From TrEMBL:
Catalyzes the attachment of glycine to tRNA(Gly). The keyword Cytoplasm applies. SUPFAM superfamilies: Class II aaRS ABD-related, Class II aaRS and biotin synthetases. The gene is glyQS. Gene3D superfamilies: 3.30.40.230, Anticodon-binding domain (3.40.50.800), Bira Bifunctional Protein, Domain 2 (3.30.930.10). Belongs to the class-II aminoacyl-tRNA synthetase family. Coiled coil: none annotated. This is Glycine--tRNA ligase. InterPro entries: aa-tRNA-synt_IIb, aa-tRNA-synth_II, aa-tRNA-synth_II/BPL/LPL, Anticodon-bd, Anticodon-bd_dom_sf, Gly-tRNA_synthase/POLG2, Gly_tRNA_ligase_bac, GlyRS-like_core.
Amino acid sequence: MTQEELFKKLVAHCKEYGFIFPSSEIYDGLSAVYDYGQMGVELKNNIKRYWWDSMTKLHDNIVGIDAAIFMHPRVWEASGHVGAFNDPLIDNKDSKKRYRADVLIEDWIAKQDEKIDKEVEKGRKRFGERFDEEQFRATNPRVAEITAKRNEINTRMAQALNANDLDGLRQIIIDTEIACPISGTRNWTEVRQFNLMFDTKIGSVADGANTIYLRPETAQGIFVNFLNVQKTGRMKIPFGIAQIGKAFRNEIVARQFIFRMREFEQMEMQFFVRPGEELAWFAKWKEARMRWHRALGFGDDNYRFHDHEKLAHYANAAADIEFRFPFGFKEVEGVHSRTDFDLGRHEEFSGKKIRYYDAETGESYIPYVIETSIGVDRMVLQVLSAGYQEEKLENGEERTVLSIPAPLAPVKAAVLPLVKKDGLPEIAHRIKNTLRYDYNIQYDEKDSIGKRYRRQDAIGTPLCITVDHQSAEDGTVTVRDRDTMRQERVNIEAIPALVESKAGMRALLDKLA
């Protein structure tokens, strides 16, 4: 099965088991907008809790806020979004499809990386135990040729993006002979800029209403509240402000399911530091955020850093944490050193002093900022992509299982009476009621026990608690582990501690602390 086929199966699985639905589906849907179903919203909330607790509970100097989506339009002038929040778009004249020019080039670069990896694997098979990958990459003529061309194009793209050279981007597409995935032709238009912000009106009368914007990021809500939080919380530099909230971008080239959407959710933390110390803090937060991802147990090799060659107008350093999705390595989180650009611009545009008095140095200054920004929806897709497995069992049967981290699982445990009589449902309900205030628990008595196990595997439930006739005799139940399918007898009184040790959020946070 190809990765593309696997991804299509995952998308279908998400709908079948109540994770993610197309928005307004009974009206044929709305492009690049999705709704979270009963399982999806639980997974999403658990991811948000993991992030929020890791920020605000494990760091004494990080607090949270929840800023409004609507903001004064001058906020977006100060931030640069009104004048510069654009994507370079190009159309194929034959298919009439529109693409982001930089994404087309990035996809071409990714294909070159795949070619290099294939050459490396050929060398590994040829030389066996004597294979030295570093030497092979440095000396193999074919690898050297592909690498040189790849690096040249990457450098040209970075230069064109930094210079806003739209003709240069188009020329790269022509030179690399990139074809439209739909028509297969290279009949391209010129590259144009397209602003991504949604606007709307605020006011009681349309003629007298003012234009405002749906926020394209959550960070500005933190910056305009910097003084409010710092003064009321008596915060001392260095400190951070965290926020989870919706953002909106009019993505023309939305694709890959929930990876790129028009309405999405962000988890952002802005960490304020002394000028001159920002790059040291940038390095610390890069490593801290990578630890957060790797603690999920999806394999260290499935993550990598991508340091930006094209820096945003506000940054002096930037890196992405990328995850290996079925469609290749893609960004799940960005770490940026934003300098003092944001607070400085808001001071300029508002006419209000936004300064921090540092009692230790006796100075008053605009703090520098390190940002960590992660997409909730991309994290949901990452967890689902990493966890989705189709397994062939020893008895010849097959099962589909979501092997996602137990603390993030939508349902922590399922309580299953073996039969619907002999007092077993009553025992099962008592167990469920003991757990329901702390965990999301399912009760299921329909179909054979084997089918019920399969249903729980498909939604990622880590533990199945089966109540049988022995339970009525000695107060024990059978607990089945999702990943190993091993079963053990456990006293009913021990179940809460077992669920907490397996699926409680503390098990995950302890890895970070």
